[in-house]
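Study both lines:
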Amino acid sequence: MGIMVFALGILYGQIFGQVLDEYMPFLAAGFVIWGLISGLILGGCQAFIASEGMIRQLNAPLSIYAFREVWTGLIAFGHNIWVFVVAALWYGVTPSWETIWLIPATLVILINGFWMVIFFGLLSARFRDVPLIVGSVVQVLFFLTPVIWQPTMLPDRAIFLELNPFYHMVEIMRGPLLGHPSSWDNWFPVILITVFGCLIALLFYSAYRWRIAYWV
């Protein structure tokens, strides 16, 4: 990831005419956060399928496999965050009191990751084409989400960003990392997504958890 951030930072910094002192930490933060979010989604698709043997042999709550994926994502994030730390130190990004918002933001993202693992894990166990579809959608969303480009580049298409839930998820973490205050315009959609996502995942899990052993 460090090599990718450095190479893309040099390339797209020149293409977009960005100042590297600002663009490189922005890009590094975006890549690290996107790696966490996409890893939870893609890993969630395989959460129950990859645990086929354990599900069939152990009488254990199925939620432990979701917790395992979330924990795996958190560990990977802990490793990748050093890419941003190096970029921040090199380009003079200093932490501020706003950085403390990274803790609740990360917690909210992990909660979202948990319900997404449950939801996509159930769908993928029942329909084996779902992981391929989700992988393709996530790849497209990467380019539609301001990870390698900045939101200010679309001043006339604000609605395009506002309707993208991943934009809000990235921003509630990237702002504190860059020392900027978290915006309520980003927090409110993420909170709504968290509440409704947890409810939907709970309904699916309550209705179909007993079938997972047959699906896998």
